[in-house]
## 1
Amino acid sequence: MTIPDMTVDIGGLKLQNPVMTASGTFGYAREFEHYIDLNRLGGIIVKGLSLEPSKGNLPPRIVETDCGMLNAIGLENVGIDAFIQDKLPFLKTLCPPTIANIYGKTVEEYAMLAERMEPFDAVKGLEVNISCPNVKEGGVAFGSDPKLARDVVKAVREKTTKHLMVKLSPNVTDIALMARVAADAGADALSLINTITGMAVDLSTRRPKLANVTGGLSGPAIKPVALRMVWQAVQAVKIPIVGVGGIMNATDALEFMMVGATAIQVGTANFVNPGSTMAIIDGMQAWLQKEGLNDVKQLIGTLVTN
Ligand SMILES: Cc1cc2nc3c(=O)[nH]c(=O)nc-3n(C[C@H](O)[C@H](O)[C@H](O)COP(=O)(O)O)c2cc1C
């Protein structure tokens, strides 16, 4: 039986298969080297990086929920300098492209992060997380205000020649509008969705379960929302869409591609089973073979709706 072609191109960045790791659920990759063959991944997206190191929020900052989890990590990370010095040398030895997820508190911070990353060839792309509050605009999330989203994407585009993926927030009324804004501002691809804001309550203590009160919901609970938003984004723009949200197995991944995603990211599943990405790659390949498809690209956008 012939092995299906699993390669995809997400707007100028070629991947050996469509399976990437979602930011914040895979550390800086080395954490997983004893569990999986990192070289089999389609792409590696590292934990969100800021200009300065950040300790994040106070605990408790993770809560399990029905069919998922809430997190309020608060974007704890080593900071861009330590990433370049301590994490990049290992990532450089791997075949899959490293994509640096970045976030700032102002438009200028995003631009500085992109500029700082530019000389490092080992970073093949940037994923811009716009689900963060803008301190200058009084905490309005970049990802929920079309004008702020455009400003961020334009500012990063001006500073980078690398592949530019913009990660959209689901906490908006009109995802198609945000997709168009990011595409028009110069994104090469879009990834969606980030977590959905939620909260959990402890009845006995009368307190929120997270110290931050609210957090981001992820896992199987959000898959239907993610599928719907990917579907809407695919209709709205011409650039490739990368689907994220509740992908736990190969079936989930294939569904996202059928809806129109060119590639996918695996997040919460890494916490349940660190080998999830490998099982997903194998499962996708086996399904394509069973269906007699010799190329994963033949599946993209083949959903029948009439
Ligand atoms: C613990 C945790 C940390 C995360 N950190 C980041 C981050 O730093 N940057 C980012 O863009 N997304 C972050 N995310 C969001 C994920 O990358 C992903 O978009 C989301 O969890 C939905 O996918 P999933 O249901 O497969 O987990 C984080 C998610 C979790 C659960």
## 2
Amino acid sequence: MNSQTSFNLRELIDSSANRVLDLHSDFVNPQYAKVLRTIGFDVNYARAEGAYLYDDKGQQYIDCLGGYAVFPLGRNSPEIQDAIKQAMDLQLPNLPGIGPFKLAGLLAQRLLELAPGNFGKVFFATGGAEAVDAAIKMARIYTARQGLVYCHRGYHGLTMGALSVTGNAEFREGFGDLLASTVEIPFNDLSALERELSTGRHAAFIVEPIQGKGVNMPSENYLREASMLCKKHGTVLIADEIQVGIGRTGKWFASEHFGCGRPEQGGTWQPDIFVVAKALSGGYVPVSAVIARDEIHRAVFSSMGNCSKMQNTFSMNDLSMTVGLATLHYMRERKTCEHVARVGNYLVAGLRDRLRQFEMFKEVRGHGLMVAVEFQRPQSLGLRLGWDMVHKLDESLFCQAILMPMLTDHRVLAQVAGHRLDVIKLIPPLTLSEADCDKIISAFEATVGACHSLAGPMWAVGKKLAAAKMRTANV
Ligand SMILES: Cc1ncc(COP(=O)(O)O)c(C=O)c1O
């Protein structure tokens, strides 16, 4: 007789519904829980669908954070769910270890067809940082050099390798020695790049075509010239499209906006390696990919003895390969890139139009559904006092004064684009509609407008967060 009870997820969720944040605080990360409570982001989300989250009272929120850019077909996409169910029903010989991986070749083939350049092979990993580590290792072995050049504010992940080329000090502090022979240069600075590359020490230059932290755009020809410099000095160019790749900007690869492509298709440059992840997962099963030129890949996998020189236990598992294949399939079917380009243009134009009346508004920039709204110090004395007070408390605080009422009063979830920035970033699921954009634009107009009143949220939030900070400092 079998006395085992069934696992009941619904029951588990219901029984802990009122303790979610306490459990997180007690057993996962108390500081994270404290931050959520302080900034009012401790909403009890009960369900999600498409571009929306729903709280336990059934209220809908437009999700402009998109799980950090991982939902190309929307949250809980029925198509991806169906693909996962198919994979499970087929009782596939998942993870043979030593034996043929059924689906990896198919996904690699699709990625190589889509990538704008002449690439030869794909190495799969699980998270983005893991793929960055793999790309670094490939570049080092291929060039037999150590050096790595990366950009200020470049973000490539937080494993020790990826962190070593991440140009945001706040993530690096306190962890001791990272990879040796790394050099940080300013983004968009070709002279600095040339100076470094001409030393002949560098294996790779790693760059995001559009920087995620701050949503910084490359200046005209920067990427093409950088690729020429890399070629001239024998350095591998790694384009990190983990966030901006796979449709986010309205093209399969963001680099295509800047002339990247095969020469026969009019492309003027291409990187040696692309890394992608995030959206390839369909928002369900983590998967990342290093798309490399053949000779670079061959430098690692140079003989039968070296055939497993780089590997991860869970990469190429059937579920991650399935979601990758299904994501690419349905994005093509639904013409997701065209949709993203159209809706992204609508959002940018609407925000620009309705926010330019405000002193604190600086600009909107973006490609597709990777959009930034930047603010600036106002001219009028009263507002400047508020601006300075908030910035003195914390240089990342001003945007929070907009994001908090955006969430609580307008039910739009978004994020600050990075530490010490007056930039809000919007990276929603790629199913966002024009009607959603209208709501987002109105929410911005109302909230930014309120910040221009002396009794507005800038002061209120400043006071609230200052008090919370003092309490934390006293702990
Ligand atoms: C450009 C870029 N590279 C690398 C990473 C790291 O990916 P992961 O968080 O999956 O390790 C990220 C994550 O946000 C990213 O945006």
